[in-house]
Amino acid sequence: MKGWRTFVATLCGRTAAAFVAAMMLLTVADVVLRALANRPIPGVLEIVELLLACSFFLALPATFLRDEHIVVDIIDGAAPRLVPLLKRFAAALAALALALMAWQGWLVAGDALAFGDVTSYLSIPRIVYWIPVLAGIIGAAAAA
17-72, pLDDT tens digit by residue? Predict the structure, then answer.
């Protein structure tokens, strides 16, 4: 059981890292081209927005699978017996919140698809932005 969790977490983490690297390289290329040749990359902001959504939401399931959330250890010293129960409660609450987010996101993504929403400069369909968001939220809910 632990093997598949490690595989999926590694896959999500490496994919998110690749999107961060692409975002960084694109930004550097845009700045260099703007400074040296006065030729910025058209639509770079829209592409960076998409890469940011991909990197964040695809890293979310890895965080849940690895149990690497930022925590504050207030209860641990005072009542160590409660910690496992509180972790289960927090996981259940997170799964519920993420399921609610996925449902609402699904509705908005459906509207974006139905209305044919596109970005203003490159005319990228907005549904392309929703795919990694929904995949990450659903994956995180399943991992929780």
Answer: 999 999 999 999 999 999 999 999 999 999 999 999 999 999 999 999 998 888 88
Q: Which residue is associated with the tokens 């999500």? A: 12
Grouping H, G, I as helix, E, B as strand and the rest as coil, residue 73 is coil
3-state secondary structure of 118: strand
125: helix, coil or strand? strand
In the chain the first and final C-alpha atoms are separated, in Å, by 15
The answer to whether 9 and 15 have CB atoms below 8 angstroms apart is: no
Structure tokens at 27: 């930004």
Helix intervals (H) in the chain: 2-37, 44-66, 75-78, 83-115, 127-143
Give dist(CA 17, CA 7) in Å, integer: 15
